[in-house]
Amino acid sequence: MIRFQCDYAEGAHPLILKKMEETNYEQTVGYGNDPYCESARQKIRAACKAPEADVHFLVGGTQANFTVISSVLRPHQGVVSAVTGHINAHETGAVEATGHKVLTLPSDDGKITAAQVRELYEAHWSDSDHEHVVQPGMVYISHPTENGTLYSKEELEEMYAVCRELGLPLFMDGARMGYGLMSQTSTLTLADIAGLTDVFYIGGTKVGALFGEAVVITNPVLKKDFRYLIKQNGGMLAKGRLLGIQFDTLFTDGLYYDISKYADELAMRLKEAFVKKGYGLRYDSYSNQQFPILPNDHMEKLKEKYSFGFWEKTDEEHTAVRFCTSWATKEENVQALIADIEAL
Fold first, then answer.
1. What is the Cα Rg of the chain in Å?
2. E strand map for the chain
3. Which element (helix H / strand E) includes 63?
4. Which end of the chain, C or N, has fewer beta carbons within 10 A?
5. CA distances (Å), 133 to each of 35, 74, 251, 258, in order?
6. pTM for this one?
7. Which residues have a Cβ under 8 Å from the Cβ of 8 and sit 6 or more positions away?
């Protein structure tokens, strides 16, 4: 079986494994206070052009999301998200288990707009009984979104301006950030993201690491006591250097960007093959996730050889599915899939 089901099916980039083996018997202090974590922090700050940013390493995306969100909100506040947002649709209520409601906005493509945020905020405060309702306290977006779509620099500027005006910290989930940054249609850089959010994280689990996410806090107000909250939420890895080594490697000589670009290029080849075959696309994605709408008989035929994700039924005879490429996808497997699509 050739797997295109997700972008974390493989282990880690060989350079990371090599570095881990080379440093295996070194003795370092724990809990992220080792030289490798500090080196990774410095490289990330440089890449973000944010020398004053705090950088913390956590094991996974769900853990990063609920730790960040619960650190920002007061007990009576909730987080604004697209209804399709990962924190609402794919994390088993992890954020709400911390006592904070996810306040959802409608979205077909995975993105929300500054205008939607303003409308929700104003609707809350214009309600004469607003103290009986969960108060919007921050905004969550992801880049790329769950649907593979991307925010433009203009859209992020508009969102951040509204968030600052309304006093709502803006948090970006970057589980697949590398694939967004290196998309052929991207208008955002890592420095742009650092300058247009209050806190975000750089995903490693889906972009070359064995595991790990790097939380970057640029708003000074949000920095205080964050390590206490990492510990309280079970996120402070004793062997913290395992995270530092991975991000230090990913941010050496542009590796993070190179492997992300590679995955995007393969995804674009798949997209071209889907369109050439005449399949519709559920979302117009230019990242590593592609969502063709397949005739059911074609879908069943491809399932004999390939693993990919079900998305939704579009009608009785067609199904939208998801194919993911990754830093580790083999070019020959993409070529085989394209050939099999052409033969259908």
1. 20
2. 2-3, 54-58, 77-82, 102-105, 135-142, 170-173, 199-203, 213-217, 280-281, 289-290, 292-295, 306-307, 309-315, 318-324
3. helix 61-72
4. N
5. 46, 14, 44, 46
6. 0.96
7. 205, 206, 326
